[in-house]
Design goal:
heterodimer; A: four-stranded antiparallel beta sheet; B: alpha/beta; ten-stranded mixed beta sheet; 11 strands
């Protein structure tokens, strides 16, 4: 694990022993079916959480695989079921979850960019034309009548049809 | 369009569903009552005045489904009417007491304003949505919807849950306003790639994004955030202009911090004799609290006890000056932009509606002055999204970038070590709901009631407000309690349905208390044909 990849401290688990969240009725500690999830929190942070249907504690290994970057491993004991992972903006990769060295889940991710995209090498723009089907004044229904529905339609314009004066 | 540019002024009006019939008085219900007196009624009064005087205005407002449901709820309407009466009674006493003192004009202004609002509330017979609908029909107000309970769609696990948040919202809008919505305010402006497909599938044709939702779009839009863009799925995205936001929002230089304006934190609830507050606070023994009647001005960076008397006339004049300043700034901004862009720019100025009136007492006056003075700025055209898209139909097709208007621009506010525990349970409930909607195509009437209530409990638990409150460290116990309560009720109902042992008394209790969306159709969660992939969320079965 490189120094840049130190995971954040895990969030407190929702247990009755944690007074800060002990408000309201209790929620299931476990759901009995195995599930792994990966959420993107921001361009540099992923949140991985999982639950195994197996009761026995397991040795978990998490592999963070990113395109064009070295793979990083995290090894956790059987109690922990979540991990915050540091990544780079606009990166594509996969988080792999291993139990006792057997692959149990592969979760793809794509992080948002944190800067404008580069302009394409040759400038091709796509334009469309949006049409409001009905004016708002036309959609006031007569008393007792259902309102007519309205909306927009879109036509694709040729590349050259860019706004010039409006 | 012959002007230098256009301004699209958007207010996002939202409160989470807070309705506690089980208590005679419940503190968090005050969020609604305060916003009614300070924001929603003053904004409606403003629109009524402008309309009567035939002064054109173009305002875009989201009225979220929970807010619409609360505004049309008879119990909350009745409670608000009583609260307004009690506040007016307090205002009358304070006004009498203040005669001849430096607080005389502040007290009278507060009292007279409340009396006017009560007349307006009675005029609409408590149904203030009718007032907003009236202005929407005139075309001067465009009302947006939002996710059913302001859920943060970018952090949901299943496409069905995202679809349900939108489908329930669309049906609710139709119930309240008699037609389908065209535009949506995504909860927290939170966008992830793929959401546009859900919006399009629900007939929603435009949305609002944070600035970098457009600036970081791929390929980069030629006009940055000064023109809307069109997503691949055919949804228009309008981008927030940071300059407009700064002028109003900035804690240091924003208009609301002007020393002339009414001080939010110095409230008569802490100053008047305690016995005057018995009705408002629900008894003699309850602790003092803010009641929404205020007599001091901001004054400057001084302690609360050093605040000086509020002078309404000066504050009104200041609001007009600020409106003029805002319009001048827009005129210069748009003139420069047009010279640079060569086409008409659009500046989008979105704000939380409750900033205007609740936090910034003179905010509605500012907006009214803005519309009145805008008539004298031919260079600047005030537009709604529909007006803009009708007049300027050409639009660049590009992919909006993942973004939100929260701190740091992504989802940290709603997903961090303090609130991450919520998602494991929310996602389980989402998956269960999808499964149930597939399992029960023809339920018995009792099963249908359970399934409908399960949908309500899930939606209520999904409100982004709870995770937000936890991060902001405001009413944290309440946010935790609400999340756990709805998820726990969901789990209990689910177990009863699966065991075929439905406790009807329990079900009735929930139906009476969490009675949001009576029109709800649990089939909104039925498994979708063809997966709509959302970037940023992966979920797989293990073991």
């Amino acid at each position: 694990m490189s120094s840049e990849q130190t995971p954040r401290a895990p969030a407190a688990a929702p247990s009755a022993e944690t007074p800060f969240i002990d408000w309201g009725p209790s929620l299931p500690a476990r759901y009995g079916t195995g599930r792994a999830r990966l959420l993107v929190a921001n361009p540099e942070t992923l949140y991985l959480t999982w639950e195994s249907s197996l009761e026995a504690p397991s040795l978990w290994r998490i592999e963070l695989a990113r395109k064009d970057e070295p793979t990083i491993d995290f090894v956790l004991d059987g109690k922990s079921e979540e991990l915050w992972l540091k990544v780079t903006p606009a990166s594509v990769g996969e988080v792999r979850l291993f139990r006792e060295e057997a692959l149990v889940a592969s979760l793809p991710f794509e992080t948002p960019r944190a800067a404008p995209a580069e302009l394409p090498p040759f400038k091709v723009e796509r334009w469309a034309s949006v049409h409001a089907d009905q004016a708002p004044s036309d959609i006031d229904p007569p008393a007792g009548q259902p309102a007519p529905q309205h909306g927009f339609s879109v036509d694709t314009l040729p590349t050259s049809s860019r706004p010039t004066s409006t | 369009m012959t002007t230098q540019g256009a301004l699209l002024f958007v207010l996002h009006a939202h409160l989470p569903w807070v309705r506690h019939p089980e208590y005679a008085r419940f503190m968090e219900e005050d969020w609604l009552y305060e916003a009614m007196s300070e924001t929603y009624l003053p904004l409606l009064a403003m629109m009524d005045r402008l309309s009567q005087e035939q002064i054109p205005f173009a305002l875009t407002m989201s009225l979220t489904p929970p807010l619409c449901e609360m505004l049309s709820d008879p119990l909350l309407q009745e409670r608000y009417a009583k609260r307004l009466d009690d506040l007016i009674a307090l205002g009358e006493k304070v006004t009498e007491e203040s005669q001849g003192s430096p607080f005389e004009s502040a007290a009278f202004e507060g009292y007279a304003t409340l009396c006017e609002l009560r007349s307006l509330y009675r005029h609409y017979q408590g149904r203030i949505l009718d007032g907003f609908a009236k202005h929407a029909h005139s075309g001067q107000l465009e009302i947006l919807t939002c996710g059913a309970t302001h859920g943060l769609l970018a952090l949901t696990a299943t496409p069905e849950a995202r679809h349900a948040q939108l489908a329930v919202a669309v049906a609710n809008y139709e119930k309240h306003f008699g037609r389908k919505p065209e535009g949506i305010w995504l909860g927290e402006c939170a966008y992830q790639a793929g959401l546009d497909q859900h919006l399009a599938a629900n007939g929603l044709r435009y949305m609002f994004l944070e600035t970098h939702g457009l600036l970081y779009a791929e390929p980069p839009p030629r006009f940055g955030h000064y023109r809307p863009i069109l997503s691949e799925a055919g949804v228009v995205a309008f981008g927030r202009d940071p300059e407009c936001s700064r002028q109003v929002w900035s804690a240091e230089s924003g208009y609301p911090g002007d020393p002339t304006y009414r001080e939010f934190y110095r409230d008569a609830g802490w100053d008047v004799p305690r016995e005057w507050l018995n009705e408002l606070l629900g008894g003699e023994d309850t602790p003092r609290a803010n009641v929404g009647f205020k007599l001091h001005r901001i004054t400057g960076k001084v302690e609360l006890h050093q605040k000086e008397p509020y002078i309404p006339g000066l504050a009104r004049a200041r609001a007009m000056e600020h409106a003029q300043h805002f319009l001048q700034a827009r005129k210069h901004q748009l003139t420069e932009l047009k010279a640079h862009m060569g086409v008409t720019p659009l500046v989008v100025a979105p704000y939380d509606a409750e900033l205007f009136g609740h936090w910034w007492y003179e905010g509605p006056l500012f907006i009214e002055a803005l519309f009145r003075q805008a008539q004298h700025y031919p260079e600047l055209q005030l537009v709604t999204p529909r007006q803009w898209l009708t007049e300027v139909p050409e639009i660049q097709v590009t992919r909006p970038a993942p973004s939100s208007w929260g701190d740091k621009g992504y989802w940290d506010v709603w997903l961090n070590p303090d609130n991450a525990w919520m998602y494991r349970h929310l996602h389980r409930a989402e998956e269960a709901m999808r499964e149930l909607a597939g399992q029960y195509p023809e339920p018995s009437p009792l099963q249908a009631r359970v399934l409908t209530q399960l949908g309500r409990e899930l939606l209520l638990a999904q409100a982004s407000d709870w995770a937000f409150i936890v991060t902001m460290k405001t009413t944290v116990p309440y946010a935790f309690k609400r999340t756990r309560l709805h998820l726990s009720q969901f789990a209990q109902l689910l177990e009863q349905l699966q065991r075929e042992a439905i406790d009807e008394a329990f079900l009735e209790e929930l139906e009476a208390r969490d009675n949001i969306f009576p029109e709800l159709d649990y089939q909104a969660w039925k498994p979708l044909e063809g997966e709509i992939h959302l970037s940023g969320v992966s979920s797989v079965a293990i073991d």
